[in-house]
Design brief:
It contains 27 helices and 25 strands. By secondary structure, the protein is of the alpha/beta class. It folds into four domains: 2-154, Rossmann fold; 176-336, Rossmann fold, CATH 3.40.50.2000; 358-496, Rossmann fold; 513-692, Rossmann fold (3-Layer(aba) Sandwich). The strands form four sheets. Strands 3-2-1-4-5-6-7 form a seven-stranded parallel sheet, sandwiched between helices. The chain has a six-stranded parallel sheet with strand order 10-9-8-11-12-13, with helices on both faces. The protein has a six-stranded parallel sheet with strand order 16-15-14-17-18-19, with helices on both faces. The protein is elongated. It starts with a strand and ends in an 8-residue tail after the last helix.
Length: 700
């Protein structure tokens, strides 16, 4: 694979050396590595390894600088065949996120600090996966940045054990040499170390504090020089300058101090000192508490407590057995837990997960029937991406249809959007989409809202039909010019996206409890072989033009009852008044009202037990097709060619009137001719015809 890392500069530092370590490991395993940075002293070492360096001002903290770098990084990704973008700092992360999105490549981040959770830092948890070098930092990102734990990967930094070879401490002669290696910053605790040393010097302890980093004229160096002079430590402080050979630098001291005043994301200098064979005293803050077991492989002190630090130094210097124990335990733990090879292999596993296990989001927010019709597409996507993390965004009303779907790893429920909270709900959904860090969006809903949300969420690849803000898609598909059935319409989109369809069969996944409940609701009340017919006279309250007149349903019920056919009437709980009115209109025999008495899957099991089912163009029609029950479908203002399920068996009744299909929830001619011209005798004839084709018992 070809990995692009982004880092502000390549000067000496823990993050920068981590870039080199990872590049070395990846190149040794046959992968390609490119690095984008503003340059620095480590560029020569990077290119000597065989990596490619691209110098860009990705360290500039300005919007103009960020926007100027995005096209250049995008061009690098496309022209050099980068497979994955890995950002390791905030400004490069903003650039890398935008460039990876443009180039449609996976994007991940490594967080190297306990950032304040302000908007500028949130990009560090926008990666497809987020790497943290310690459990302490990982937990911080989960709690403060709301990073889902499923997207967090804790990979401690590694040490090249050949470069940082064990060097037994020499016999002690002269002053004790204390090393503090890190950039000159109040966060690294140089002032705390100086105060501790001043306390020890006053007690007559012979010490020299060796400080690495910082040019003589740098403001941080000048401030520390003034502090050294105020404490009278000129003869007890040695400036080592910027060091390239860290193993030799560590070997030149007797013990290493890591008195950080701010939580460390890892503590590289601590484990490098342990690898070389030097005891460590560190602050009990951040990840340092994970690296150091107090009294076993080092000592821990409270942060900013120079008195405690001075006592710990004096204790270690005066106890040869403790020093030897810390040296031995420290090297042993580095060898077992932090070798460079392990860090590289774990990072490679994260890269492989990003490339071979994409996170795919499928949109199907509205209409229960449409969700049922999407099950062949879910099956096809799962077959195409067997290792992917597959998420379906679905409306709450249709959740039960896919709650037990074996093709899905996750279901994202979209709450109803009612004024005046519609915008707030969209913001909540957008937050969940960003947390999901999806690689691919397949829009089976094809609405303005779903196109916009996928674009806002920063999903790199967005597939859908090019209509209703279709320019927000980067893999838009033109609408077919011919009329297609609903599943065929979805299959056309999938084929254009390179996903092979997997048949037309609809699927439902009821539980044994659902089937048992259905059996209880329609227990035989008469002869064992009494015929059972189900009907669903309701449907969407918005589409009342799809409904057949209720008095005609009542006449069908009466005619069936007169011939010894048992009728069950189904519907949602909001359709109970319709059921009561139907009972009032019937005369020969009362049908069994199951309206509001079943869950969705229980209703599917009830329909499966019917020999014939009657319904409008509604979700009940799709349920019947999914369970294979012969159905009489009454169509009026809609076109059965566009809405009839592919596995439908039975008979469609539709009248060719001049205004149909109109797709209007209100009849524009007032006559409602498309439904009123469907006669009762015509429907009964279709029922008798389907019943004649089967002689199975009612409860099968």
């Amino acid at each position: 694979m070809h990995v692009l890392q982004l880092v502000p500069t390549l000067d000496v530092g823990g993050v920068e050396r981590g870039v080199l370590d990872l590049a070395k490991g990846l190149l040794a395993r046959g992968h390609r590595v490119s690095v984008v940075s503003a340059g620095g002293s480590l560029v020569a070492r990077l290119t000597a390894l065989g990596a490619v360096h691209h110098q860009l001002p990705v360290d500039q903290k300005s919007l103009a600088g960020i926007f100027a770098c995005i096209p250049a990084v995008t061009q690098i990704i496309r022209e050099t065949g980068v497979d994955l973008v890995h950002a390791r700092s905030r400004i490069p992360a903003w650039i890398g996120f935008a460039a990876a999105r443009r180039a449609q490549r996976p994007f991940l981040t490594t967080a190297h600090g306990f950032y304040t959770p302000h908007p500028g830092s949130r990009v560090m948890v926008w990666g497809r996966l987020v790497i943290a070098p310690s459990e302490a930092l990982g937990q911080y990102l989960v709690e403060r940045f709301r990073l889902p734990r499923t997207r967090l990967r804790v990979i401690p930094r590694g040490v090249d054990l050949e470069e940082f070879a064990f060097q037994p401490p020499d016999a002690h002669h002269g002053p004790w040499r204390l090393g503090l290696f890190g950039r000159l910053s109040p966060l690294k605790g140089q002032e705390v170390a100086l105060r501790a040393c001043a306390r020890l010097v006053r007690k007559g302890v012979p010490i020299t504090l060796c400080l690495a980093g910082g040019a003589p004229g740098a403001p941080a160096r000048q401030a520390l020089d003034a502090l050294v002079a105020s404490f009278g430590l000129q003869d007890h402080v040695e400036w080592l300058g910027v060091q390239q050979d860290m193993p030799a630098c560590i070997a030149s001291v007797d013990l290493v101090l890591v008195p950080s005043t701010y939580p460390e994301s890892f503590g590289r200098s601590a484990i490098e000192a342990q690898a070389v064979g030097r005891p460590v005293i560190a602050s009990r803050v951040g990840a340092l508490g994970e690296l150091i077991e107090d009294g076993h492989n080092g000592l821990l002190v409270p942060p900013r407590d120079h008195e405690a630090l001075a006592l710990a130094i004096e204790r270690l210097l005066n106890d040869p057995a403790l020093r030897a124990r810390c040296v031995e335990a420290g090297r042993r733990r580095v060898e077992s837990e932090w070798p460079l090879g392990w860090m590289v292999e774990r990072t490679l596993a994260v890269y492989d997960e990003c490339l071979t296990r994409p996170r795919i989001l499928i949109w199907k927010l509205s209409a229960l029937g449409d969700v049922i019709l999407s099950t062949p597409s879910l099956r096809a996507v799962r077959r195409q991406f067997p290792a992917a993390h597959l998420t379906l965004a679905v409306g709450r009303s249709a959740y039960e249809a896919v709650a037990r779907c074996p093709y899905l790893d996750e279901i994202l429920i979209d709450q109803p959007r009612r004024r005046p909270r519609r915008f707030r709900r969209d913001l909540g959904l957008l937050r969940r989409l960003r947390e999901g860090a999806f690689d691919l969006s397949i829009d089976l809903q094809n609405s303005r809202r779903t196109h916009l949300l996928a674009w806002w969420a920063g999903i790199p690849i967005r597939i859908g039909y090019r209509r209703k803000l279709g320019w927000l898609l980067n893999r838009g598909v033109r609408l077919p010019r011919v009329v297609l059935a609903p599943v065929a319409h979805q299959h056309h989109l999938l084929r254009q996206a390179g996903i092979a369809p997997d048949g037309d069969a609809l699927e439902l996944w009821p539980s044994p409890a659902d089937d048992a409940r259905a059996a209880e609701l329609i227990r035989p009340t008469g002869p064992a072989f009494m015929r059972l017919v189900g009907m669903h006279p309701g449907g969407s309250g918005r589409w009342r033009t799809k409904r057949w007149e209720l008095s005609r349903w009542a006449r069908v019920c009466d005619a069936l009852a007169e011939r010894g056919v048992r009728v069950v009437v189904t519907g949602g709980s909001d359709e109970w008044p319709l059921g009561k009115e139907l009972l009032r209109l019937t005369t020969s025999g009362s049908p069994d009202l199951l309206i509001g008495k079943t869950s969705l899957m229980e209703l599917a099991c009830v329909i499966k037990r019917c020999q014939v089912f009657l319904a409008h163009d509604s979700s009940a029609l799709h349920l019947a097709a999914a369970v294979g029950t012969p159905t009489i479908a009454l169509f009026g203002p809609t076109d059965p060619r566009r809405h009839l399920p592919p596995t439908f068996t039975g008979q469609v009744i539709k009248k060719d009137v001049f205004c149909s299909p109109c797709y209007s929830p209100r009849c524009r001619t007032i006559t409602h001719a498309c439904m009123n011209t469907i006669g009762v005798e015509e429907v009964l004839s279709a029922v008798w015809g389907l019943l004649a084709q089967t002689d199975q018992p009612a409860a099968r």
